[in-house]
């Protein structure tokens, strides 16, 4: 008679362990959307980029639209975190805006010509015309950028860095519009030198000479 072992039997873990890094998968998916646009990106493209098959993509992120929205949110969170770091040493408005546009250009001009520009501005506007969720994301992103910059403009006015009669909300919209036109022009192949000159001109309009 075979004696049973007294050691406890090893049980196999239930379910299949994740074989992917969600952050890496979102980054890889974003690269495809950035290059081909939402409409031009297929599930096969996303599967090839992330190394995940279709069932795994659906299980992890939902459908193509869900995945795209998650990449947009990830990009926005990273952009916001980067912007806040530019304020660590409490710079003047002029110094902050110079850093702000330079940091944006580092992103917009990174990689090859097919992936330059701002991720959300390069991909979301076309999709926003037919997708309410994308439209809401785009509207919130623009609005929150305006609000953030308006707060900085107000503080700058209180510190005498811009004219005492300056309107913070109007200047904030100018600053946001400059960011967006830089994004579009970088996508069109305009040189960094030209884009920096454009940004410098906008900074001069915004800051000017404090009165």
Polypeptide structure, described:
The chain is mostly helical and 211 residues long. Helices cover 69% and strands 0% of the residues. It contains nine helices and no strands. The longest helix is centred in the C-terminal third of the chain and has 27 residues, at 132-158. Residues 1-18 have low confidence and may be disordered.
What's the arrangement of secondary structure elements?
Elements: H1 22-40, H2 43-50, H3 54-61, H4 64-85, H5 93-108, H6 119-128, H7 132-158, H8 168-187, H9 192-207
Summarize the structure.
The protein has nine helices and no strands. It has helices at 22-40, 43-50, 54-61, 64-85, 93-108, 119-128, 132-158, 168-187, 192-207. α1 packs across α6 (119-128) and α5 (93-108) packs antiparallel against α9.
